[in-house]
Input
Amino acid sequence: MRIAETADAVVVGGGTVGAWCAYFLRRSGLDRVILVEKRTLGQGASSRAAGIVRTQGGTPWAVQLGEWSRRFYLRQQDEIGIDSGFTPQGYVLPCFTPADVTAAHERMAMQNALGLAVRWLEPGQLDALNPTLAPGLTLGGTYCAEDGYLHPPRNVIAYAVALATAGVHVRERVEVRGLAIRGGAVTAVQTSHGEIAAPLVVLTGGPELAQVAGLAGIRVPAGGVRHQVAVTEPHRALAAERVPMVFDLAAGLYWRPEEGGLLFGMSNPAEPPGEAASVDERYLALMRQRLAELVPVTEGLGLRRTWAATIDYTPDHLPIIGPAIADTGVLGGVVIASAGGAGMMWGPGVARAAADVALTGTSEVANVADLGLDRFDAAGNSKLGTDPIALPFPEHAPQEPGRLTLS
Output
């Protein structure tokens, strides 16, 4: 049955960015906010992420979005009566070459200037802090004790509760078919269950964002790629107090404590973009080999769980937050929001900034003026430098824009 509805704002996508954006829009005073999700809340990567929350970003945007998100996770219990399970664990970014050391000190200066409590660890200090790491491998590294992780399934529960208590109208199993545009501005969202008239629309959608936006003729250079995560068997040497979170930038491998073992994850930069939810056993073996070189106690440990999810990325590894742009120009009332593969880490900050941009055009979370679609050329190349502290995603994203629906 096709039903016509009206709303003050429609948010497309029920993942971390979309759900928290709908919540923030409602809390900002909009009377009727509708969230549209073609499956169910959190059914995509949001429930299968690794949960890493790192404020040690490689750009000021990454730092500000990460820190805003971390603080939001900490205040959730007071604000909504439930939280995403954030656990401060401390995060180390080790250096293996003199070039790594130089880059780390430059990043640390930027991070400290933005208020982060990041400090330098000499090699001996790093080994003492992380006794499971093979000794003598590093030239030191940066460390932030306030970084941590959350539990992704609990995050989905938290935003589902927040949506319900805030009065957001959630429409699950409803597919977006396009946007109705009149006079260069959005007037409605067309769905499999009918039209929703609204003057504001925020398009999220993670790995499917480019496809959804393409239905309205909006080119979004974002793609999806397989990301693999595994959890080892428990071992007494891997107790949480002995294992800070670590990001091995040289390989793109990260790990953190989980249920007495290690959770570790990585993406294959050589794999073509596309949807993938199965585990690549060959690449998982390479991940395990690198982990064993750095954390010898994991060699030979069995795996309790392995999984894969398709997560989103952008060519410069930075988020997209800004007005939608079609061939006809800026589409009034339409905002694009992508966390670029960092949904747990930046998601609430991206969501808050996108809600702000939809309502006022700017945000106090971060200066997002340069994070819009206008930073990309027709081929999807960004005029911004690539965030140097990111997973090894591909540098290009295919996109096939659809047709703009006029009414």
Observations:
- The CA atoms of residues 348 and 384 lie 23 Å apart.
- Residues 399-407 have pLDDT under 50 and may be disordered.
- The radius of gyration is 21 Å.
